[in-house]
């Protein structure tokens, strides 16, 4: 998961553009419909890959990690001094551990 967060964070402009699209989708129902469909397909793809790979956890685990790590990425990109690198590593580890323990 650290690698995933790192890769997404390195593609700063892409992630921030997607965040801007999400904000615009709150004002434009037609964009919201398309974006919801696209993101749902991506999330479903991630759930399917996780389950097919036999990784620990279930679909809820994947969704919880998606939610937790997305907001961590938002904070890392918009408020980079909020958490140190070691705190980010600890938070990722805690999110994974806690999502899997449920």
Short recap of the structure:
The protein has one domain: Tetracycline Repressor, domain 2 (Orthogonal Bundle), CATH 1.10.357.10.
What is the helical fraction, as a range of percent?
over 70%
The dominant shape is flat
Q: Poorly predicted ranges (pLDDT <50, ≥5 residues)?
A: none
Question: What is the average per-residue confidence, as pLDDT, rounded to a whole number?
Answer: 94
| CATH homology superfamily name | Tetracycline Repressor, domain 2
- Count of DSSP H/I helices: 5
| Secondary-structure-derived class | mainly alpha
Give a short account of the largest sheet: none
Q: How many domains make up the 3D coordinates?
A: 1
Order of helices and strands, N to C? HHHHH
| Second CATH tier, the architecture | Orthogonal Bundle
Strand content: under 5%
DSSP, total strands: 0
Distance between the termini: 18 Å
CATH topology: Tetracycline Repressor, domain 2
What's the gyration radius in Å?
15 Å
- CATH uppermost class: Mainly Alpha
Descriptive overview:
By secondary structure, the chain is mainly α. It has one domain: Tetracycline Repressor, domain 2 (Orthogonal Bundle). Helices cover 82% and strands 0% of the residues. The chain contains five helices and no strands. α2 packs across α3, α3 packs across α4 (59-78) and α4 packs antiparallel against α5 (85-101). The model has no long low-confidence stretch (mean pLDDT 94).
């Amino acid at each position: 998961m650290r690698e995933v967060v790192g890769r997404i964070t390195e593609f700063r402009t892409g992630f921030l553009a997607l965040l801007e699209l999400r904000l615009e989708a709150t004002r434009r129902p037609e964009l919201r419909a398309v974006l919801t469909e696209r993101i749902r397909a991506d999330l479903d793809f991630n759930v399917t890959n996780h389950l097919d790979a036999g990784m620990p956890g279930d679909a809820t685990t994947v969704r919880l990690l998606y939610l937790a790590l997305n907001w961590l990425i938002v904070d890392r990109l918009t408020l980079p001094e909020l958490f140190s690198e070691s705190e980010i590593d600890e938070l990722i580890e805690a999110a994974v551990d806690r999502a899997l323990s449920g």
